[in-house]
Amino acid sequence: xxxxxxxxxxxxxxxxxxxxxxxxxxxxxxxxxxxxxxxxxxxxxxxxxxxxxxxxxxxxxxxxxxxxxxxxxxxxxxxxxxxxxxxxxxxxxxxxxxxxxxxxxxxxxxxxxxxxxxxxxxxxxxxxxxxxxxxxxxxxxxxxxxxxxxxxxxxxxxxxxxxxxxxxxxxxxxxxxxxxxx
Length: 182
Hints:
Elements: E1 24-27, E2 48-53, E3 71-77, E4 87-88, E5 98-99, E6 112-123, E7 126-130, E8 139-145, H1 148-151
Antiparallel strand pairs: 1-2, 1-8, 2-7, 3-6, 3-8, 4-5, 6-7
């Protein structure tokens, strides 16, 4: 198998840039990046949101078989992300910098988000969901079904993350807003 790397030649690799268009936008109660839960499904967030799909791009028939699906993957563009760095300070655990790709920091070379949400109901092109970890206005790139037989690996190891107690406090980079502040 040819790795296609710089030294190995091999298959042609598209260099980019790539053009992506949102298929919709998140309508969420979260307005600020640093007031939004991280890994909302892990902390059982009960916040509800709506995934509003673009009526020009997405026909309602594209959503026809979602009935009975409990969870969805939402692929998003983290449009309010910052600059990325090879080492980041995770919000939980010991205050040490970790390699970017061993974390879920939103500040990445390509700020693509991956969230799993609970599907509550479908109304036209609006998907009502629970457990969102995205801010209001986040562009949606794609939606895929969560498949327990293919997506769940309960015994998988998470390296340094396994050493952090599940109920460990989360450190905030910025204080929460006061009443009346955005």
